[in-house]
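Amino acid chain
________________
===
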Amino acid sequence: MQKIAEKVRSVLAEIDSIYEMLCQNNTNPAMKAISQIMPELNEIIMKLISEIPYYRQLGVDLPEDVILAQLQNLLEAFEQSDMVMLADTLKYELTNTLQVYDEILIQLEAES
């Protein structure tokens, strides 16, 4: 659990950096950075989705369809080089999901 928590925090930091690049119109470095974090981001999201039934048993309701839609939005924005959609999806959708996941992991760690 510690390893995934570290990945989540690392990706959150990268997203902040990428968001700043996008806001400054540094699109090439931002696109390169996104392509570098995509495998980790995908791994984190897939792990989160696979754990949703367990979290529901604990009383945490995570909307699987919304999480998948966020990832789809990111992929679509990346493929279309839509910088505004990329920035919005990273900062206002995926960041929130990753922060919730991080909070869940912190709670579970505290309880064990």
User: Anything to note?
Assistant: Helices lie at 2-23, 27-57, 64-79, 83-111. The first helix runs from residue 2 to 23.
